[in-house]
Amino acid sequence: MDLSTIERLMQMLENSTLNELEVSENGMRIRLAKTAGRGAGAPAASPTRRDTPEAMAAAEIAALMALPDVDETDEAVIVAGLSGTFYRAPAPGAEPYAKEGDLIEEGQTVALVEAMKMLNPVEAPRGGRIVSIMVADGEPVTPGTPLILLASD
């Protein structure tokens, strides 16, 4: 990282609302931070909690990750809680935990997600009838992947 690049970074930081800037390039890391002006007499106003870069980034991430408001319905979707491989049965060739049309109870294991050689049960958050199994056996899933559609019964 050459001196002209560092000077440009300093100007970018000075002209922005950020208080800190950290950049890594070719194994070199530089961290720049704004400080209150010396000899100004009055202390600089500290940003409010919601004006900090961390708070603004957190608010933006929360807005992007927020689930849309859904009206109360008779249906519920069971989603994957972690990344892994979805399995409908406890072992190859065994009967699946649940099939479409089955009536299930709250807390009942309806499938498994294998993650790092560990089999994690997928449990029904409420009772109801399985309308649809949305993922094929042996398919990879990530957190939030819809697995099973339930209807209250």
Description of the molecule:
The N and C termini lie far apart (65 Å). It contains 2 helices and 10 strands; from the N terminus they run αββαββββββββ. The model is unreliable at 38-43 (pLDDT under 50). It has 153 residues and is an alpha+beta fold. The strands form 3 sheets. Strands 3-10-8-5 form a 4-stranded antiparallel β-sheet, with no helix packed on it. A hairpin with a 2-residue loop joins strand 1 and strand 2 (28-33).
Secondary-structure blueprint:
Layout: H1 3-14, E1 20-25, E2 28-33, H2 53-65, E3 75-79, E4 84-87, E5 103-104, E6 109-115, E7 118-123, E8 128-133, E9 140-141, E10 146-151
Antiparallel strand pairs: 1-2, 3-10, 4-6, 4-9, 5-8, 6-7, 8-10
Order of helices and strands: HEEHEEEEEEEE
β-strand percent reads 25-35%
Oligomer class:
single chain
Helix content: 10-25%
Number of helices: 2
Number of strands: 10
Which structural class do the helices and strands define? Answer: alpha+beta
N-C termini distance: 65 Å
Q: Give a short account of the largest sheet.
A: 4 strands, antiparallel
Widest sheet: strand order? 3-10-8-5
